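job 3f2a | input accepted
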Amino acid sequence: MKYDRRKAPRIAVKLPIHWEGVFESSKADITSLSRTGCFVLTGGRVSARELIRLEIQLPSEEPVRVWAEVVEEAYEIGFAARFTSPDDEDYDRLVRFITRELAKK
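job 3f2a | predicted structure (105 res):
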């Protein structure tokens, strides 16, 4: 049995983003989102523990800009990232969006 390290409820989404890392930057989609992190669906290249900048386009809002650390890479599929800027105003807007979406379920 695989151990699930997730500590926060996740929501399935399809949010467009632009991400920037050490090797490249690219447009992509977030397909899974929680208060602690997300999964980015992209063919872009990242490495474990890489610090990346995410610009997430929330529906009917200004983009949210947060920093995250790559925690797992799925070659040519995407990567999982953990948010690293929890004291940020943009992060607070992201949490409000997640809370609203969780309340709908």
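job 3f2a | Residues 11-103 form a domain with the Thrombin, subunit H fold (CATH 2.40.10.220).
job 3f2a | closed
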